[in-house]
Structure to design on (885 residues):
């Protein structure tokens, strides 16, 4: 394998690490927001739930921002194509995510029931909508979206918001939502006491069951979809030009990698193991949290393993599909950025761990009486 | 309006909105660090209250900065897809590093700053505060390295196989002199903003005779930090002018409304009325030598005027067309080494040929008239730049005067004696925001028609999205951001009026 090929593989894996990092870290605070109206009814309960994520959600959201930046740096063609192609869906996600920083900060700064109810719903939509839309986006990857490039590599597409919201993609959106809700419920079970904790604990088995069923259903549906396969020669260290290959449709093709490498089924097993253990261990919330983190890990890894080497399959011009081999940055940029990640990511993880340690322990109703609480 | 204008308007509005919050975050974060350092060193509780109260205002503003910043990270992809493809190999890297090195730092430690007063020792909390300030400032560094590259695209070359710019020298991108000057200029402007904010709000308290001890201490910190920052803004602004004089001659000429080349040493036009139609500037008041000194740091180098630069652009378009025709030939014969050598010889002007794409897709068939029109399109909006620059500089000089006075009064312990000074401080509150926004207008509007100077025209960078989508998102952002800004201003004035005692639920402790 050439150095460029290895770098592309590493950056494909890092793309997965970032998405999984985002789903695990931001996942529990998105899930907390999505559960807000259900597990926390009085103002104090709401504040308790919000304050469990208050000190940490901001750092978690950086996983999302970093995801954007890293895709830009390592997979510029994917960044350009997916975000402009999914324009309105992306704007919708941004709008609801924008509500989160202000929602957390502004909500409890005014003692007015309507003001607070408004921000509660803003936070709620900031939890539900991104979780759904990211799942919908993944669903559309399996179906392919209609796009291509001209000779100058200018991207064009006929994607609309309605075409993205098709039944299979919505199913994937619900898979994503159930996994986020499960993770959020496990988090609240860990970080609260009393009624909020009890209600959150009751959500756990329900969310795990829904996830398990929907994930299986999505898998069966995928087996009925056409996958894609590169049929021409495509050097793995070729210049990043997505117009140099031929791609063919293959019935059930998204299972080809699993057929060739049965060990990949471990990704599916990880997701299910996580869901089961999150329920089994719900009286030991710390361990249950680790278990429910396995769910997004397994789910995203499953999707990545199935799609490999495709990043963004095209339904209208399959040859223009973006793959690991023709959508990356230059060798030098991938190498420099890998160095940056190797240097900085451990530092980030270290101080993040320290912050969680400082803020350890449940949030109690008396904790939100302070003027600095959210 | 077409997709280009809609996308530009959306980017300009969302960026200018974002920068309403950024400079205050940058400035206040460092001021909080300074105040908390005094608290840890003296142990006096009033200094902790200072940190906590200004921290509440910081937090309200910080949330808006984060909220409006989310859009910025993704808008290159949603609205500027061809830009993202064309320069992502270079431009994406600093953005990703910004996330990894700066955003994680500030976003993680901002949580500790607000929530961990009782969970950390004094020194640990001080560490968290300074780390927050460091993260905030590092984020400015990386975004300005990215922006500096758009102004002065060093360390990269065009790759015909991938049809994009790729990094050739990462260190050159990192240590881009334009980026370094812009970084210090911009963070200093943030420090000025933070200092004016603290000064003005404190002046408001002193005018009403409230929270006197609190306000005087705040003012002293703001005055000493502010005077240093205000001087730094102007000095580094001058450095920016010099670096722009080296590579963005059209921007300098437009700021000066200098239609014809000034013989050395060039004089500086203080005021005048630039006229776009006739390429003249009426009623000019000029100071000899000054422009030559700013732009070239010499007395014997002429500063080229707009008309001469348009002539140069005309030549570069013709040279760029040779590069473009060679690219078309290479597509038919990818392995022809002679063609690739020919491309290398002309590729530096490829961007100029791309200017023609505004008029026709098959630019290799462009007429002489179209080339002339494309050459004229390299002139930015002269009157806007001329006035934006002069107001920005005027405000910058006013801040030096204001902080010098505040510093002198603070040294004499007479901050609360002069109502005229207090009113001047209070009324200066909006000025740093105006100056910052004008500065970005000079920097970015003055870069037009380029997204990346001499490399990629702005209009070419847009996504091929349905204009209706962009109109929808543009209106949505304006309405949405305005509502959020309303809530932000409401909360800021609410807590400023409440004052430190009621906000923190503490009694003011006389030192």
């Amino acid at each position: 394998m050439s150095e460029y090929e290895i770098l592309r593989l590493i950056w494909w894996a890092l793309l997965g690490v970032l998405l999984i990092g985002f789903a695990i870290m931001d996942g529990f605070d998105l899930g907390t927001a999505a559960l807000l109206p259900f597990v926390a009814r009085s103002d104090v309960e709401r504040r308790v739930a919000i304050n469990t994520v208050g000190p940490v959600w901001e750092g978690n959201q950086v996983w999302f921002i970093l995801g954007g930046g890293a895709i830009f740096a390592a997979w510029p063609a994917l960044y350009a194509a997916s975000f402009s192609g999914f324009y309105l869906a992306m704007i919708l996600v941004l709008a609801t995510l924008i509500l989160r920083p202000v929602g957390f900060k502004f909500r409890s700064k005014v003692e007015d029931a309507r003001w607070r109810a408004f921000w509660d719903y803003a936070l709620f939509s900031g939890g539900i909508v991104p979780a759904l839309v990211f799942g919908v986006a993944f669903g559309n990857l399996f179906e392919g979206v209609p796009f291509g490039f001209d000779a100058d590599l200018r991207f064009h597409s006929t994607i609309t918001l309605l075409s993205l919201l098709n039944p299979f993609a919505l199913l994937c959106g619900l898979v994503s939502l159930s996994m986020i809700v499960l993770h959020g419920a496990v988090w609240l079970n860990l970080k609260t006491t009393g009624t909020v904790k009890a209600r959150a604990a009751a959500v756990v088995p329900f969310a795990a069951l829904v996830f398990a069923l929907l994930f299986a259903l999505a898998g069966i549906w995928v087996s009925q979809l056409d996958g894609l396969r590169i049929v021409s020669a495509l050097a793995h260290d070729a210049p990043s030009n997505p117009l140099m290959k031929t791609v063919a449709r293959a019935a059930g093709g998204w299972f080809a990698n699993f057929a060739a490498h049965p060990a990949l089924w471990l990704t599916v097993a990880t997701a299910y193991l996580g869901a089961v253990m999150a329920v089994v261990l719900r009286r030991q919330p710390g361990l249950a949290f680790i278990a429910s983190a396995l769910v997004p890990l397994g789910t995203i890894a499953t999707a990545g393993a199935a799609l490999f080497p495709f990043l963004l399959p095209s339904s209208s011009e399959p040859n223009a599909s973006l793959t690991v081999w023709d959508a990356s940055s230059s060798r030098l940029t991938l190498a420099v950025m890998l160095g940056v990640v190797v240097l900085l990511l451990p530092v980030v993880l270290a101080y993040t761990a320290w912050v969680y340690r400082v803020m350890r322990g449940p949030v109690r109703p008396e904790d939100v009486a302070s003027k600095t609480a959210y | 309006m077409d997709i280009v204008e809609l996308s530009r308007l959306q980017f300009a509005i969302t960026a200018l909105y974002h920068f309403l919050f950024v400079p205050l975050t940058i400035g206040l974060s460092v001021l909080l660090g300074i105040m908390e350092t005094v608290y840890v060193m003296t142990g006096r509780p009033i200094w902790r209250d200072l940190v906590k109260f200004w921290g509440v205002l910081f937090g309200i503003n910080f949330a808006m900065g984060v909220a409006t910043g989310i859009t910025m990270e993704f808008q290159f992809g949603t609205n500027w897809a061809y830009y993202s493809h064309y320069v992502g190999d270079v431009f994406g890297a600093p953005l990703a590093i910004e996330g990894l090195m700066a955003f994680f730092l500030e976003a993680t430690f901002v949580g500790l700053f607000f929530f961990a007063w009782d969970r950390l020792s004094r020194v640990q909390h001080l560490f968290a505060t300074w780390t927050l300030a460091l993260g905030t400032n590092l984020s400015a560094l990386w975004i300005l390295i990215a922006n500096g590259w758009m102004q002065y695209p060093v360390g990269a070359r065009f790759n015909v196989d991938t049809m994009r710019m790729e990094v050739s020298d990462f260190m050159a991108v990192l240590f881009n002199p334009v980026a370094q000057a812009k970084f210090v200029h911009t963070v200093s402007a943030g420090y000025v903003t933070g200092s004016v904010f603290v000064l003005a709000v404190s002046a408001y308290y002193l005018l009403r005779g409230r929270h006197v001890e609190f306000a005087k201490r705040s003012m002293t910190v703001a005055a000493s930090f502010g005077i240093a920052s205000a001087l730094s803004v102007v000095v580094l602004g001058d450095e920016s002018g010099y670096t722009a004089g080296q590579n963005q001659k059209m921007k300098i000429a437009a700021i000066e409304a200098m239609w014809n080349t000034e013989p050395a040493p060039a004089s500086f036009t203080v005021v005048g009325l630039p006229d776009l139609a006739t390429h003249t500037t009426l009623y000019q008041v000029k100071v000899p030598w000054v422009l030559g000194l700013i732009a070239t740091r010499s007395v014997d180098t002429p500063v080229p005027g707009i008309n001469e630069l348009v002539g140069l652009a005309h030549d570069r378009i013709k040279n760029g067309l040779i590069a473009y025709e060679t690219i078309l030939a290479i597509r038919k014969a990818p392995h022809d080494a002679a063609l690739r050598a020919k491309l290398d010889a002309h590729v530096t002007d490829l961007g100029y040929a791309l200017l023609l794409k505004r008029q026709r897709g098959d630019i290799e068939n462009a007429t002489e008239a179209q080339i002339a029109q494309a050459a004229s399109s390299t002139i930015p909006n002269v009157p806007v730049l001329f006035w934006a620059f002069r107001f920005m500089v005027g405000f910058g000089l006013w801040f030096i005067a204001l902080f010098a006075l505040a510093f002198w009064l603070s040294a004499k312990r007479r901050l609360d004696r002069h109502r005229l000074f207090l009113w001047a401080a209070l009324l200066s509150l909006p000025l740093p925001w105006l100056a910052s926004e004008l500065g970005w207008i000079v920097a970015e509007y003055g870069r037009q028609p380029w997204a990346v100077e001499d490399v990629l025209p702005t209009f070419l960078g847009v996504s091929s999205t349905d204009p209706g989508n962009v109109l929808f998102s543009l209106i949505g952002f304006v309405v949405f951001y305005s509502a959020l800004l309303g809530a932000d201003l409401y909360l800021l004035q609410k807590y400023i009026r409440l004052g430190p005692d009621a906000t923190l639920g503490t009694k003011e402790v006389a030192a």
Notes: The CA atoms of residues 26 and 60 of chain A lie 5 Å apart. The radius of gyration of chain A is 21 Å.
